[in-house]
Structure formats: C-alpha cells, structure tokens
Write a structure and sequence with these properties.
The chain has 107 residues and is of the alpha+beta class. It is 38% helix and 24% strand. Residues 55-102 form the DUF6788 domain.
Length: 107
Amino acid sequence: MSYDPPTPPANLPTEIVNTLNESDPERLRDVATYAEALAEHKEREARLEESANQEEVEERPDDLPDDVPAKATITIKKINDNRYYYWQWRDGKSVKSKYKEPVNPNE
C-alpha cells in the first residue's frame, strides 16, 4: 500500500473532494457505505423504469385471452374453404395456436 494520498477522480467536484479530505476515517467509511447503497438504489430504480417503459410498449390487446402471451400475433388459417383467425406464438421450438374467431368475409 502506498503512503501517498489517493488521487480523486477527475469528475468529482472540488467541494466534495475538500469535504472528504477534511473527514476522519470513520466518517469516510460511512460515506463509502452510503454512496455504494445509493448507487445500487439508483441503478435499481433505472432498471425498474426501463422495465416499465418496455411493458408500456408490450401492452396486451383487450381481446387477448389470459392463456395467450402478449407476444402472440394473429394469423389466418384456411380450413375446409373457411378462414379463421388464430392467436399464434412461439413456445421454445414449437409454435402454439389458439382459435380467435372466423374471418368476416366482408373484410
């Protein structure tokens, strides 16, 4: 360990550096503990905000059944010359489908 005092980060304001330099070791350890906890808190808040923003983008359609994931898309399947809407999504390597309603022939 060096006997020279540590060099503060260049982006740390002078007022903070001066206050820290005037503090005793116990206060410095308290500041370090608080600063670490505060940094973790702010990072967690940022992640939660980012997650909330993504959820707004991935809003569930009103007619989406509870057992169908939000990532599902609507596809049309033709069965015996009739067309039907199905919810369809990927589940691992397989593709899942759930009946929605018949296609309106006027559309």
